[in-house]
Specification:
283 residues, nine-stranded mixed sheet
Length: 283
């Protein structure tokens, strides 16, 4: 019997061969376990009964269904780590799909994703509704121009979500800014709270005979262009309800009532100077 030393003890050759076989068996068991651990879940995850095969879109009236389906299909194609299908009903990237839809289609205000069954992915959307216009160019269109003045739809929060057709100018109230947005889409015109105060403000001005048609945000001040060609100028931090009250009291004062066609002759009403109202009239 041949004796072999390992440096720590003296063992027979048969003993070392036995140890090597045991080690090889352990390695084989581990490898087999890893293969089974990966192969079986991969097989199950790729089984058709667990794969999303169709997409259902609900709630859209303007956004094309095909546009939504294309984005969703792109996000559930392929595999994670080259093994696990993204279209699996457990593994599909729900949050990513929602975020990409909201980013790529600004008309959508909300997206809800659910599985009607393991093979059918249901996408329910809510679209933003046109409330007003944001226009880059507020100059009157010329007779030989078919340009829409670079107008975009705003929703009720002041978010710019879509280009507007050229015929929209006479239907919706117009907002703009100085300077104008370089890329209006996905921009917010003022903050939503302040923007929400503007519509009642504009309506209240109409109730006292002043009819704004364009609102201009100039940073530190607001200009409201009137239908008669005049304008109202106020500070951007003004209390809008107080502005309406001050203007109503001003227009009903004996001095102003004595003026002939005062409202029709307004060039400007400037309310930037505390309780004073400075005005300029056409001759």
């Amino acid at each position: 019997m041949k004796i072999v030393s390992s440096g720590k003890g003296i063992h027979s050759l048969e003993f070392h061969q036995k140890k090597r076989r045991e080690r090889n068996i352990r390695i084989a068991v581990v490898v087999l376990f890893v293969i089974v651990f990966i192969a079986i879940p991969t097989y199950l995850l790729k089984t058709k009964r667990f794969l999303i095969s169709s997409v259902e879109v609900k709630g859209n009236s303007v956004t094309r269904t095909e546009e939504i389906e294309q984005i969703v299909s792109g996000k559930i194609s392929g595999n994670y780590l080259w093994l696990f299908p993204k279209s699996n009903d457990v593994l599909y990237p729900k949050s990513t799909i929602k975020n990409v839809l909201l980013q790529d289609i600004p008309r959508l205000s909300s997206v809800t994703i659910s599985l009607s069954n393991p093979n059918l992915l249901s996408i329910s959307v809510v679209e933003r509704q046109p409330f007003a216009l944001y226009c880059i160019d507020i100059s009157p269109p010329t007779s030989d121009s078919n340009n829409s003045n670079g107008c975009f739809f705003l929703d009720k929060t002041g978010y710019v979500f879509s280009e507007a057709p050229s015929f929209s100018g006479g239907v919706y109230f117009v907002y703009t800014s100085e300077p104008v947005f370089d890329a209006p889409l996905r921009q917010s015109f003022l903050n939503p709270v302040r923007f929400g105060e503007l519509a009642p403000f504009v309506s209240s001005l109409g109730n006292i005979g002043l009819y704004p048609k364009i609102f201009v945000d100039k940073g530190n001040e607001y200009n409201l262009e009137l239908s008669n060609g005049g304008k109202i100028v106020i500070r951007s931090d003004s209390d809008l309800e107080r502005i309406v009250g001050d203007l109503e009291a001003f227009l009903n004062s004996p001095k102003i009532e004595a003026e002939r066609d005062f409202i029709k002759r307004i060039v400007s009403l400037d309310l930037r100077f505390g309780n004073q109202i400075r005005w300029t009239l056409k001759d």
